[in-house]
Automatic annotation (TrEMBL), chains A, B:
PANTHER family: ASPARTATE AMINOTRANSFERASE (PTHR46383). This is Aminotransferase. It is an enzyme of class 2 (transferase). Homodimer. It comes from Haloarcula limicola. Pfam families: Aminotran_1_2. Its cofactor is pyridoxal 5'-phosphate. Signal peptide: none annotated. Keywords: Aminotransferase, Pyridoxal phosphate, Transferase. Residues 21-366 form the Aminotransferase class I/classII large domain. Belongs to the class-I pyridoxal-phosphate-dependent aminotransferase family. Its EC number is 2.6.1.-. GO terms for molecular function: pyridoxal phosphate binding; transaminase activity.
Length: 372, 372
């Protein structure tokens, strides 16, 4: 499987060249404002002393790590601030592949394509577990697929692309599967602020030495371009305790450190942003989900209403989600989505729509008209 | 060999805990102001639209790449903007090791320890070529050491730690050695704005398909913490043309993209900073070099007056540059340097001093007193 971005590009370029107005629901960039504290952090940083323009600690600014550690209720030493969740997942997956026997990465199908692309690039083999009809991984299916060949299991909750959310019990089951197979559960929780079900549980709650949780501020603060994320590794001194040191070394020898202006701005935003900001963002998405799912109903589409995240996958009658049909939808309906085949086999007939545009209502009407 | 930062930390922590005032000449962070255009870039970015807070292109903001390409006189497609020179060197070294036969990385001794640390981490073998009495790599010695086992040759000019500067002819010889041995010359040119000899030549002038030039704005704009660097790869379609695509993929799967606030600020600074800023920075360093080398003469030390960069290495009579002696220098003279042994064997008796402090005069007096 190819990794995501070039495929995104193909679709986005097609939409940009279209002869008509197109509502872009292709990529997952928030379209709303970051909290004002983030801008304040940038403003103050612009006037900082030259010493503050020099290397932050390789593992991240201390105050930022402390804020993260307090929020996640873990020791600060376990936190590495990374260049977005991308690097956090990279450190976790390479660490798991190096540390555990076996060269297999277990992934959901449909999958966020970066996981599969990274596994392929690293020379690992991939095994896919199809989600059930609700778009969810069944722990029993994961348990059946896992083996001594498995060194990494990646779970993403709230999920891109299906919108599934796993609760603490499900996460504990995934962690137990990792433990039973001497493997690492990498739990990518970047959409954790976008749980509409109230059931989201972090993999950290399993308190397992076989878990690395990854996250970023890209979605929760609407700053995908800042590249500030983090990984929480098992504690040093315990089982799998050397994963942390190895990740610190890899991070240092790859990137030296993360970008300080971005870390400063995020640190300020975390200290000054009220819970209301996050609640507003959730409500905005929930309104969009209501309207979009209503239109999907009108269009006679099959879909799972997302429990979390930014995306809705849908299958339209006699209109499989191939690149060809997605292009037709751009040209004829004026709505851009991502073909399901970009995410694997099990939902190759579906189309993923990202609800990060203020024009969700318009897109919903256009789809209802086109399929109605 | 251990990589640099933990060893830096050991010395910096010792200096911080000392009972007396210590002039810190341990690490290479510029102590002067960035150009005003950089701050203007940050100020404007703080007020930008939300879309400007989202992912930049993975290979870097287009306007920044174009500015770099124009300055280096290369096609813009050859430029990947990286998370500092650290990631640029990482992409180049991993690319060379993947692409060429052999698993050996050829390095100067003394060496910037990140090169050796990265080679070790990647499972490569390292071979060291001692510099000559002037602190320079003799191309003949490099040619004698290179073999079919060599896949990467790393050269750093102006050099950390010796201050050597290689001209275009020497660079062409290093490139020819890489070509003759089917290997990659990685030319780290981060101190290129700090050439006091007027002889610096970029490896790009050799116009060889076996060259990757790496650089960053950390030193030239005094922003080591921003993490904006770049690598220039051989053109696609020519010999070794697939190095570029492989590096783009590795960059995307490791970091997704670099940090946009930092890239925006650098882009503005490049467009608005006059040559006088860079000339002032050079003059500041040259004054410091004059004074410091004068004191080294008084102290009876052996040293090479640097042709470029931030550092002076010196050997004092009966005072080899061990960690023990460096600690004594901190306690007794109030001057912190880096032990030569941190950089390899050939100058293990020497001490490296970074001239990035306004207190160079004071340090010079203290050293002259201590050894006088």
């Amino acid at each position: 499987m190819d990794y995501e971005t070039p495929q995104f590009f193909r679709v986005m370029q097609y939409a940009a060249r279209a002869d008509r107005d197109v509502v872009d629901m292709v990529s997952g960039n928030p379209d709303w404002d970051p909290p004002e504290g983030l801008r304040d952090g940038l403003r103050d940083y612009a006037e900082a002393e030259p010493t503050e323009f020099q290397y932050p600690p390789s593992v991240g600014l201390r105050e930022l790590r402390e804020e993260i550690a307090a929020r996640r209720d873990v020791a600060v030493e376990r936190v590495i601030v990374t260049n977005g969740a991308g690097e956090a997942n990279h450190l976790a997956m390479t660490g798991g592949l190096d540390h555990f026997d076996g060269d297999e990465v277990l992934l959901a199908d449909p999958v966020y394509p970066y996981y599969a692309g990274r596994a392929n690039f690293l020379g690992a083999t991939t095994r896919f577990v199809p989600v059930d009809d609700d778009g969810r991984l069944d722990p029993a299916a994961v348990r059946a697929a896992a083996s001594e060949e498995t060194s990494v299991l990646v779970v993403n909750s709230p999920n891109n692309p299906t919108g599934a959310v796993y609760d603490a019990d499900a996460m504990a089951e995934f962690a137990a599967i990792a433990e039973a197979n001497d493997a690492l559960l990498v739990s990518d929780e970047v959409y954790d602020h976008f749980d509409y079900s109230g059931r989201f549980g972090s993999a950290l709650e399993a308190d397992s030495p076989n878990v690395v949780a990854t996250n970023s501020f890209s979605k929760s603060l609407a700053i995908t371009g800042f590249r500030v994320g983090y990984a929480v590794f098992p504690p040093e001194g315990g089982p799998n305790g050397d994963l942390l040191e190895r990740a610190r070394t890899r991070h240092m020898l790859t990137n030296v450190a993360g970008s300080r202006p971005a870390q400063c701005a995020v640190s300020r935003a975390l200290k000054t942003t009220s819970p209301e900001y996050y609640a507003d963002c959730r409500r905005r998405l929930e309104r969009r989900i209501d309207r979009f799912c209503g239109a999907l109903d009108e269009a006679g589409a099959e879909f799972n209403r997302p429990d979390g995240g930014f995306y809705v996958m849908a299958r339209f009658p006699d209109f499989p989600g191939s690149f060809e049909n997605v292009y037709e939808l751009i040209d004829e309906a004026g709505v851009g989505g991502m073909p399901g085949e970009a995410f694997g086999d099990s939902r190759a007939d579906w189309i993923r729509f990202a609800l990060v545009t203020p024009r969700v209502d318009e897109a919903a009407e256009r789809l209802a008209d086109f399929f109605g």
